[in-house]
Design a protein that fits this description.
0% strand; 5 helices; mainly alpha
Length: 151
């Protein structure tokens, strides 16, 4: 592996890590807003008490889940755009897109894990099929490409 290839992997790896870090901060900010201010947890509920936390999750109105969707999508969009912009242009035309896809894909996996692990309503699975489209169009937006053909 040449030095330039190593630099490419390091730069793109750091772009993904940076995108995930910033995207996660946005995600956690919205989740904190949701659980502390918009729909606060009762004082006797903590994340450590699975039964009480599960009851709290089940009692949330649909709007609370909408904020969670926005948090997940925000992580994928902002993190993906940042990763795409930080990616090395030396890796070819698709380097930024790939970094964006990785951030979006990992965000989608995290969302699936939450949906499986938490006692959420079945309709919240509707969030998952949106991710591939969201990730694709985020990569297009970040790279400045369009699906429109030149006339």
């Amino acid at each position: 592996m040449s030095l330039s290839t190593t630099n490419l992997f390091v730069r793109n790896g750091l772009a993904v890590v940076g995108g995930l870090a910033v995207g996660s901060a946005i995600n956690m900010g919205l989740i904190t807003l949701n659980s502390k201010y918009l729909f606060p947890m009762p004082p006797d509920v903590s994340f450590d008490d699975e039964e009480k936390f599960g009851d709290y999750i089940k009692s949330l109105p649909p709007l609370a889940y909408t904020v969670v969707f926005c948090a997940h999508y925000g992580q994928a969009i902002v993190g993906g755009i940042l990763a795409s912009k930080l990616a090395s242009s030396d890796g070819g035309e698709g380097s930024g897109d790939l970094c964006c896809y990785i951030v979006g894909g990992l965000t989608m996996i995290g969302s699936i894990m939450n949906t499986v692990a938490l006692p959420v309503p079945a309709w919240t699975w509707l969030e998952i099929p949106v991710f591939p489209f969201l990730i694709y169009y985020t990569a297009k937006m970040a790279s400045g490409k369009s699906d429109k053909k030149a006339e």
